[in-house]
Amino acid sequence: xxxxxxxxxxxxxxxxxxxxxxxxxxxxxxxxxxxxxxxxxxxxxxxxxxxxxxxxxxxxxxxxxxxxxxxxxxxxxxxxxxxxxxxxxxxxxxxxxxxxxxxxxxxxxxxxxxxxxxxxxxxxxxxxxxxxxxxxxxxxxxxxxxxxxxxxxxxxxxxxxxxxxxxxxxxxxxxxxxxxxxxxxxxxxxxxxxxxxxxxxxxxxxxxxxxxxxxxxxxxxxxxxxxxxxxxxxxxxxxxxxxxxxxxxxxxxxxxxxxxxxxxxxxxxxxxxxxxxxxxxxxxxxxxxxxxxxxxxx
Length: 298
Ligand SMILES: [Zn+2]
Ligand SMILES: [Zn+2]
What we know:
Elements: E1 2-4, H1 11-22, E2 33-35, H2 41-44, H3 47-54, E3 57-61, H4 65-69, H5 71-88, H6 93-104, E4 118-121, E5 126-129, E6 132-138, E7 147-151, E8 156-160, H7 186-198, E9 204-207, H8 216-237, H9 245-252, H10 259-277, E10 281-284, E11 291-294
Parallel strand pairs: 1-2, 2-3, 3-4, 8-9
Antiparallel strand pairs: 5-6, 6-7, 7-8, 10-11
Bound molecules: zinc ion (ZN) (2 copies).
């Protein structure tokens, strides 16, 4: 038996999962493999407990190795990185501290799995599910190590948080993976990944949250158009004057608090990355603070 994502490490989730399995005459000890679509605590939090009871392997994209097997150290790296990003983005100290405190509250929802249980996956690999070969589709963006699974026979895509029907997925900002120096450009990657999945022949996408998706092409077109109009909107905000990501975040989302400020900043920085790539804005970091200015001004 293969379980795809586990839910967070939380008593209610644990009970619900045990009950769901037991209703089918199954238990944790029957689980041979856990596929983790991406390294967010609501997707892999219970993996450690399941592995402890079953010895299951944990299959996930190679990029998720440290997050899954060295969870506490990875959190510490992120606190440092996000603290730095908040400061450079012009966020006040209180807002930075509140966002980091919000992140710390997520830490108890997962634990590391033993490194010898981790099996790295890459784009194009095959995972056999009920005798059918499901193809690993690497789709970074919402998370830098996100994978979907695609079955050509049923034309079904397990889309995780990559495609959600009723909300846009946040392009969550991440530090550079260990061994790299550049942080992922989350929204740049995300739009590329959406185009990649839209080219698959999909009858139905099964997201990790919410309702099934039957028209992936239309959903992707809508999402890309939404981001295009937000790019224009942010560019307009910069016509008057150079602004920091935090200032732009306050214009777009005026009432964010604590952890939500992090999501807002991720959204803004994701768009600024694209504007910069497209040569529409320029980053001035000469005094340590990130200020974005229209490219034609000097
Ligand atoms: Zn997620
Ligand atoms: Zn999720």
